[in-house]
Amino acid sequence: MLRTIAVTLAVLSFLFAPAPSYATPHVQEICTWYDMSSLGVVPEYNLYADVPFTGLVRFVPPHTMGDKDYAGHGPKVTANVEIGITRLGMYANIHMKAVETKADWTTAAGQVFHLWFLHLKDGWKLRRLGIAEYNSGYLEVAPGSIFEAPIPPVDEWTYGSYTVEYLDTNHKVDTFQALPATQENPMLYYDFVGDTKGGEAGTRTLIDVYTKYTAYELCH
Question: pLDDT digit string (tens) for 40-79?
C-alpha cells in the first residue's frame, strides 16, 4: 500500500512539475550585399527590383511664366538634387528652375521626387546602402560610403544635397561633374538643356541626373 502511494505521488510530481526552462538560442541575421545596378527580378534572392538602380533620372520642369522661347536670353539655371534613403529604397528629390534674363521672363520650374523602389519578400529588410564602384570586374563598397537605412519611426534620411547654378549661353548640352568628387557622393554628373532653337520651356529644357552604382545590404 505504501509503495503504491509512493509511486502514485512520483507520477503526479512528474506530470505537474513546472516545465524546464531552456535558454532561447541566438538566431543570427543573415545579411547579403546585392548590386542593384544589374538585377531585374531575382526571386531566388527573395528580392524584386522594379527598375535599374543606377543610371539616368530625367526631369523636364513645367513652363510657368512668359512665352516658351528663351530667345538667347539665358536662361539662368538653378538646380538642386537631394539624395536619401527610405525604408523602401533610395530617392532623388530634384528641383530645377530656368529663368530668361530679360522680359517676358520665360520660366520653367518645378520639382520631382524619384524613388528607386525595393519590393522585399516577407522577412527581408533593407539594412544599409552603399555607393559602389567596379574595380577589375568586382563591385567594391568603400567603408566610408555605407549608409544605415532609417529605423522606424523615421521614414527617410537625406545624406546629400547638391546644387548647380549657371547661365546658359548656347544651345548645347551643358555637363557638370557632381561635386564633391568623392566616393561617398552617389551622383556622377548632370546634363542640362536650357535654350534651344524655338520654344523649349516645358518641353526641351531639362536636367538629366546620372548616378553611380548602388548596392544594398538586405537582411532576414
Answer: 444 444 444 434 445 678 999 999 999 999 999 999 999 9
DSSP per residue, 104-146: T--EEEEEEEEEEEEEE-TT-EEEEEEEEEEETTEEEEEEEEE
Strand partners, 161: 82
Distance CA 173, CA 66 (A): 23
Residue bearing cell 538586405: 218
pLDDT confidence of residue 121: 66
Tell me which DSSP letter residue 20 carries.
P
Inter-residue contact 162 to 185 (CB < 8 Å): yes
Strand-pairing partners, residue 109, are 97
Distance CA 160, CA 145 (A): 12
Separation between Cα atoms, residue 18 and residue 34, nearest integer Å? 47
What number of other Cβ atoms are within 10 A of residue 4's Cβ?
8
For 144-210, give the secondary structure using H, E and C.
Answer: EEEEECCCCCCCEEEEEEEEEEEECCCCCCEEEECCCCCCCCCEEEEEEECCCCCCCCCCCCEEEEE
Question: In this structure, how many other beta carbons lie within 10 angstroms of the beta carbon of residue 14?
Answer: 8
Q: Which residues pair with 59 in a beta bridge?
A: 207
> Which grid cell is 60?
523636364
